[in-house]
Amino acid sequence: MFERFGDLPLHVLVIHLAVLLLPVAALVAMAFALLPKWRWLLRWPTLLLGLGAVVVAYVAKESGEAFVAAIPQLQPLVKTHQDRGNLLFWFVLIFAAVAVVAFLLLGGPSALASGKGAKATKSRPLELVISAAIVVIGILVIYQTIRTGDSGAKAVWDGQLPAK
User: How many CA atoms, within 13 angstroms, populate the side-chain half-sphere of residue 146?
Assistant: First the structure.
């Protein structure tokens, strides 16, 4: 199921979406956490991007495993990439969970001039802990996405391109 999309390996296609979506989801969530005046605008994108990140990371992980299963001689070349991808998947799961908690608990003003629909945070310490958690896990997701992509690119392209 995760091996091919038409005549191409699915992993080769989905990683481009992962490299784009995961950092964007993390940056939107960090903005949501750090900019209370913008929470009315960023609440739903934070939730949807957080959940979408899990789906994309899962498909990237499974399609990568299917790709290696189809071509077993790749296993030693992509071991580091696979290990980093597995860690990234766990980071994305934690990120999505924190994004859902933030969606539900972080307060913020309303987009309406009347203020109707504004949401208050139950306590300031809770707001600080959730915001800090989003920033920390967001940075980890971005960092691990870069590391994972770099190790995959090196596994594929190292020694393949002509010297300058």
Answer: 8
